[in-house]
Amino acid sequence: MFRRVGLTIGALALLVAASTGCGTKPVVGVLLPTTGEAGTYGESIESGIRLAISDARQRGGLPTGFDVVWADTQSDPERAVSELRRMVAERKVKMVIGGATSAEALAVVEVLDSLGVVCLSPTASVPGIGQRSKLFFRLYPSDELEGQTAARFMFDRLGQSRTVVYSGGGDYSTGIEPEFVNQFADALGGEIVDRVDLTEPDWRSASDRVLTASNVGAVYIIGYAGQILEVVLHLRERGWEGRIVTTSAFFSDRVIAEAGAAAEGILFPLPPFDRTSDQEPVVGFVNRYMDALGKAPDVFAAHGYDAMWLTIQVMTIADPPETNEIRRAFHFGMNELMGVTGPILFDDYGDVKHYPKMFIVKDGQVVSYQRYITTERERILREVQDLLVTEGG
Asked: For the chain, what is the mean pLDDT?
């Protein structure tokens, strides 16, 4: 599934196999919010993780003694920390896949050094978190990149120099909003006409007043999927016809299906995972996922898959599977893997070097905006050619 650019994991594993002893077993913790506010994300991530384990087992790629300890954080940062402590105390866990949300990641990162646990977050995006611990790594681009990408797209590609920002509050929104504002207003010279606080009970009334007075052609919605859906439905119900740009959190098949026709045309940045790609390793992953679950994977399932697949490689070469060896494997043993979410290479702060691209909801499906534009151009060209042939005949 992964392709290697340089030294292969298999070759590196052979180098250490002869010296592998029978000490600490490679036990990995998985901390996910499978219930609560962020439950929909946790469920998707878990599905990807389980598929990665299944793939590795079928290929005989699991390290000897490999085991996984699961826990539901219930979307509660404090519970995430307590479950991590329990894993360490009861199972001597030295590595955990966790911190799925920014709030949970911020809580977990504060105890990693004292517990001696390496954490790989599949989806946390809060800026600067890797600077808090050398034991923290993540596969998801920072919010600062997402906010900047959305701002440049709205200003340059959509030609919208004025906008209203809808903000949902919390660590996720406070991570993205300043980056969007700095890029859109300060760097590009756009105007943030107003801001609607989604934590206020009367935000709908405030929205009505702002949209009526501002006459903007595009809005930017920052929040988790449920909050975004509420704003989208509100805008559609009042007949607003402008462009809607939002965050990657909207990419939930459940939420998009619930939105129905209201989701059509919504734009948002995502990490470089395009499930419509015809290239490996994406094609194989999508096909196996659909065979196993009967639906296409979303970006969170893809990051869950890459998180566990990478973890298995790390625990294969970490000898023994202790904190320092695991951390060393992340920095020096990977040498750029090609995952389903793109090339995996970490910087000095544990951030993956991924850069978001814009996607659009078209006919209920999430597709690359560039692919959408190319397809639309080809469609228009065919229609023009058909019209010329008809008129000429």
From this structure: 90
